[in-house]
């Protein structure tokens, strides 16, 4: 079987906070991304999904510590931390951020900022680089002569598209998108999502889309993982997650979203996510779960295979325990 | 031309402010109970002399007339006559201005260089010892009255480094034969160092804090994170995206601090008896030589206004978002 | 597209998670407390001290006598006890500081609130005025004004107060403008509340914290400014402030007499109070408008560490297909 493009294995991230507190933000996350695949990472605000993808590029602050492995084409890029991860930035893995309005430095031209990584990674330089920058802008639907313009001369949607163009400057294999459409209006959102799907199809670009917005994921991704309190609850195809959820959280999540597939009432999940500054011995969702039973608060559910390319971390899937439920 | 409007607006603003300063100057000095001549102290200041002087200076005429005369004179570059010396205010002040500018240039250079270095490192290595040292050194020097710092330097440093603490030249030079230009030059510099260092240290405190806070702001922006994501090294990110953008708030804040520089140095010159415009102001106050005081204040106000205009234009050049 | 998760706001899983962290971003809460303690201590010294010390200017020994058991900081150029002088200096300096700051806040406050509240022509006119005054250099103006009108404590307070109103004005104008647009103010206005009621009941309380921060910083500026004025001999001849003590040391040639005890202490006192006030003011401002702690950006590296002992492991075995356990009640909506 082919090695997946990216394989994240047991990733942990901690943050040292003032007062000696340690926040365990990402708690053993594992997933895989195939070439050309569009993968969604969904969950509530604060579940650790952004931190996870930042860790893939090593873009964590100095009070962060990381454990686990991230295999890019078989090579563990987190092996020696910053040293091994930095060579891959932008060349293999690129990112667009939430509110890419601010991803651009306001005092430099857009073209300059697209050219910057090209020259840095020796992909192109000078005139050639600028020409390429113009071409990239055309790819995302912006006319090439806008390379000479400043970011404030672009509208919000255009800026996000330009950010996407910038992310493609060194022809990366993977694009990480963190809430790329939040804060954009609906029409523009649709355009951006279409663009992402198109790029993925046309150029074989793999995509990891992080969002709390389920309809967005449904529109773009084939596979997805659901995160809660720093752990992955379930992963699999969008269809599978929606029609045959193997984790109560997944089910409640999709049920809470109106209009995912056109109908339904909003059901909110009572309670709040657990604190992350302490160990959680059992399932993190147990306190809010409607199907919780004996082992849930005390025994951590194993991340079980529940189908082809399907995993779920829930005791309900464990035949040994299910009898008791 | 981009923002021709903006440039014109700032120019107009500067002109109006100059006018306000001139008027304020005039009003202040004429608002004193009694008039300038009345409180003048000098050897030949008999009552008749004062009356004649009063008439000569036009102080016996209405305020409006005086105002008009004042403006007309200014337009011709005439700042009036010193009451003590039979000399125009301008010719009295000119040499002092040169001395002060030289000293301030030295001090400001020192403060900018060290302020920027410390500020950048402090922000870069935020939370570490380097940051704490930078922050606290800035705060401490910023809190010291410049004249007191000057006194401390005279007390503890001058002797140790063997630098002169008063005047601008060694009186013994040139007595026993001609001193070379180089010797004279070095002598000047040696006399400038301590006062410049005093001004420089207080300014350093302020600048280190300003640069640090501006850098913290820019380094926390998304575009700095994007720069890192693109593979730029720490240094490149700090320089190209952090510092470059921090220049904007830095220029603004430095411009606001100009009033402080153009004021603190007065007391420093007094401490070191350094013959600059500051010392002249002190002497003029002591001797009630109001025209000198008035002229000096006008010059200082003018320089601050012009420097602010410069800062506005610089800001305009640095920030492409300004177009109106 | 709204988020489906309305149940509760999850704390951000980043370094900003803990509530106190923001405030300790630049200057710690601890520093603010230290600052306040220091200022209060000096205030107490200034208020109570002079009653204890009696007339500080009394000659109690030879000129510039070094520190000794009975006079911990020696005697100054007039033979007076330095400690007593400093204690009295605290009273005068702090008095000038707070009084001048009060005058500044008053003027600046009125201008700022009026400009922010009424907007339009009033705003433009007032702000123009402020801008002009902002550019005229404060210290020279202060010195000239003091030279012309100084020599009395009251005048000095007024001069300093008048010169520094501009920052308060701008600050308050910005705040008042933003508050004016808030819903509850609009509602109150719609219900017929008059202008003064709106200002006093709704807007002023909101701006109060910012005014406090600004006041503290102004006190520091005023104390600092007073030292300039007195150093040039323009102070009130009968008032002993720290600035005056520095001037005395200078004019009495303390340096020639190597009398560090006459020179160092007053400056140290000024520096400490200014430092404390700056720290406190900055910390309060920080708490009100917290700058985001640098959450994501790193210009320094993260660390790698070993895996915790309990990992998440995928067992090789597969399981029977859905037992419907987790998904029993799902199936909302129809397929796309």
Structural class of chain C: mainly alpha
Number of helices of chain C: 11
If classified by CATH, what would the architecture of chain C be?
Answer: Orthogonal Bundle
Proportion in helices of chain C: 55-70%
Highest-level CATH class of chain C? Mainly Alpha
Please, what is the CATH homologous superfamily of chain C?
A: MetI-like
The overall number of domains of chain C is 1
Q: Main sheet of chain B? A: none
Number of strands of chain C: 1
Reconstruct the topology from this structure.
The complex is a heterotrimer of chains A (325), B (324) and C (336).
Chain A: E1 6-16, E2 22-33, E3 38-42, H1 49-57, E4 64-72, E5 75-76, H2 82-85, E6 93-96, H3 110-120, H4 126-139, H5 156-167, E7 174-178, H6 186-203, E8 206-211, H7 214-220, E9 223-228, E10 231-237, H8 238-243, H9 248-255, E11 304-307, E12 310-312, H10 319-322
Parallel strand pairs in A: 3-8, 3-9, 6-7, 7-8
Antiparallel strand pairs in A: 1-2, 1-4, 4-5, 9-10, 10-12, 11-12
Chain B: H1 4-30, H2 47-56, H3 63-75, H4 89-124, H5 129-142, H6 146-161, H7 181-219, H8 222-229, H9 234-272, H10 277-286, H11 290-318
Helix pairs in contact in B: 1-3, 1-11, 4-5, 4-7, 4-10, 4-11, 5-7, 6-7, 6-9, 7-9, 8-9, 9-10, 9-11, 10-11
Chain C: H1 19-23, H2 29-53, H3 82-118, H4 120-135, H5 138-149, H6 153-163, H7 165-180, H8 183-190, H9 195-231, H10 242-251, H11 260-288, E1 303-304
Helix pairs in contact in C: 2-3, 2-11, 3-4, 3-6, 3-7, 3-9, 3-10, 3-11, 4-7, 5-6, 7-9, 8-9, 9-10, 9-11, 10-11
């Amino acid at each position: 079987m082919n090695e997946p493009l990216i394989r994240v294995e047991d990733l942990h991230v901690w943050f040292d906070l003032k007062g000696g507190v340690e926040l365990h933000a990402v708690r053993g996350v594992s997933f895989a991304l195939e070439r050309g695949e569009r993968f969604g990472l969904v969950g509530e605000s604060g579940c650790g999904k952004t931190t996870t993808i930042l860790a893939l590029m090593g873009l964590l602050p100095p009070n962060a510590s990381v454990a686990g492995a991230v295999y890019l084409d078989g090579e563990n890029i987190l092996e020696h931390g910053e040293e091994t991860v930095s060579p891959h930035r932008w060349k293999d893995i690129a990112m667009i951020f939430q509110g890419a309005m601010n991803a651009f430095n306001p005092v430099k031209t857009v073209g300059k900022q697209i050219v910057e990584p090209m020259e840095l990674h020796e992909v192109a330089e000078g005139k050639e680089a600028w020409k390429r920058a113009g071409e990239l802008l055309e790819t995302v639907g912006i006319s090439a002569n806008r390379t000479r313009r400043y970011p404030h001369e672009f509208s919000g949607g255009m800026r996000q598209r330009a950010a996407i163009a910038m992310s493609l400057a060194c022809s990366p294999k993977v694009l990480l998108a963190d809430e790329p459409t939040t804060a954009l209006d609906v029409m523009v959102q649709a355009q951006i999502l279409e663009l992402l799907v198109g790029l993925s199809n046309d150029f074989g670009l793999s995509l990891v889309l992080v969002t709390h917005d389920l309809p967005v994921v449904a529109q773009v991704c084939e596979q997805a993982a659901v995160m809660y309190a720093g752990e992955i609850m379930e992963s699999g195809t969008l269809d599978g997650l929606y029609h045959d959820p193997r984790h109560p959280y997944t089910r409640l999540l999709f049920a809470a979203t109106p209009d995912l597939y056109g109908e339904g009432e909003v059901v909110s999940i009572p309670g709040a996510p657990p604190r992350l500054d302490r160990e959680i011995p059992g399932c993190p969702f147990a306190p809010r779960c409607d199907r919780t039973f004996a082992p849930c608060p005390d025994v951590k559910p194993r991340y079980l295979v529940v189908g082809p390319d399907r995993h779920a971390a829930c005791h309900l899937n464990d035949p040994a325990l299910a009898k008791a439920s | 031309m981009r923002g021709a409007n903006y440039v014109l607006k700032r120019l107009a603003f500067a002109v109006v402010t100059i006018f306000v300063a001139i008027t304020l100057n005039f009003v202040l000095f004429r608002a004193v109970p009694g008039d300038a001549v009345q409180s003048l102290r000098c050897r030949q200041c008999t009552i008749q002399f004062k009356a004649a002087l009063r008439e000569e200076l036009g102080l016996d005429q209405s305020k409006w007339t005086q105002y008009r005369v004042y403006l007309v004179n200014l337009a011709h570059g005439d700042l009036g006559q010193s009451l003590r010396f039979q000399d125009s205010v301008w010719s009295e002040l000119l040499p002092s201005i040169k001395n002060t500018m030289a000293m301030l240039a030295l001090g400001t250079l020192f403060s900018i260089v060290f302020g920027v270095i410390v500020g950048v490192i402090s922000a870069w290595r935020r939370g570490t010892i380097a940051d704490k040292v930078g922050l606290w050194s800035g705060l401490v020097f910023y809190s010291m009255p410049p004249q007191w710092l000057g006194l401390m330097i005279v007390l503890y440093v001058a002797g140790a480094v063997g630098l002169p603490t008063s005047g601008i030249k060694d009186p013994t030079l040139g007595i026993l034969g001609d001193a070379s230009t180089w010797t004279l030059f070095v002598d000047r510099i040696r006399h400038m160092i301590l006062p410049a260092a005093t001004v420089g240290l207080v300014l350093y405190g302020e600048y280190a804090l300003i640069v640090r806070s501006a850098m913290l702001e820019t380094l926390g922006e998304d575009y700095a994170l994007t720069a890192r994501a693109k593979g730029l090294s720490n240094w490149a990110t700090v320089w190209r995206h952090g510092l470059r953008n921090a220049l904007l708030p830095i220029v603004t804040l430095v411009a606001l601090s100009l009033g402080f520089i153009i004021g603190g140095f007065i007391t420093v010159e007094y401490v070191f008896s350094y013959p600059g415009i500051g010392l002249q102001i002190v002497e003029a106050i002591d001797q009630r030589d109001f025209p000198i005081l008035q002229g000096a204040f006008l010059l200082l106000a003018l320089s601050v206004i012009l420097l602010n205009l410069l800062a506005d234009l610089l800001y305009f050049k640095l920030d492409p978002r300004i177009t109106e | 597209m709204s988020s489906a998760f309305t149940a509760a706001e999850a704390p951000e899983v980043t370094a900003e998670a803990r509530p106190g962290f923001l405030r300790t971003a630049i200057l710690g809460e601890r520093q603010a407390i230290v600052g306040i303690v220091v200022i209060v201590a000096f205030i107490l010294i200034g208020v109570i001290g002079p009653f204890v010390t009696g007339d500080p200017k009394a000659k109690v020994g030879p000129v510039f006598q070094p520190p000794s058991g009975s006079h911990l900081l020696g005697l100054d150029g007039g033979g007076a006890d330095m400690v007593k002088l400093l204690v009295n200096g605290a009273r005068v300096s702090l008095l000038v500081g707070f009084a001048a700051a009060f005058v500044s806040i008053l003027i600046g406050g009125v201008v700022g609130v009026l400009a922010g509240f009424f907007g339009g022509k009033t705003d433009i006119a007032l702000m123009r005025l402020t801008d002009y005054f902002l550019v005229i250099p404060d210290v020279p103006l202060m010195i000239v004004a003091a030279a012309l009108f100084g020599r009395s404590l009251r005048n000095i307070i007024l001069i300093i107060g008048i010169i520094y109103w501009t920052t308060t004005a701008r600050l308050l104008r910005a705040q008042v403008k933003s508050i004016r647009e808030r819903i509850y103010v609009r509602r109150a206005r719609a219900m017929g509340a008059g202008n003064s009621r709106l200002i006093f009941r709704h807007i002023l309380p909101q701006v109060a914290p910012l005014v406090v921060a600004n006041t503290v910083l102004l006190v520091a500026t005023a104390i600092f400014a007073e030292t300039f004025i007195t150093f040039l001999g323009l102070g009130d001849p009968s008032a002993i402030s720290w600035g005056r003590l520095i001037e005395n040391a200078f004019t009495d040639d303390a340096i020639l007499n190597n009398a560090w005890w006459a020179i160092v202490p007053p400056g140290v006192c000024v520096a400490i109070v200014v430092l404390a006030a700056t720290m406190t003011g900055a910390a309060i401002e920080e708490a009100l408008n917290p700058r985001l702690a640098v959450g994501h950006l790193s210009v320094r590296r993260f660390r790698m560490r070993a895996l915790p002992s309990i990992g998440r492991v995928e067992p090789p075995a597969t399981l029977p297909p859905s037992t419907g356990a987790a998904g029993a009640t799902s199936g909302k909506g129809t397929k796309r």
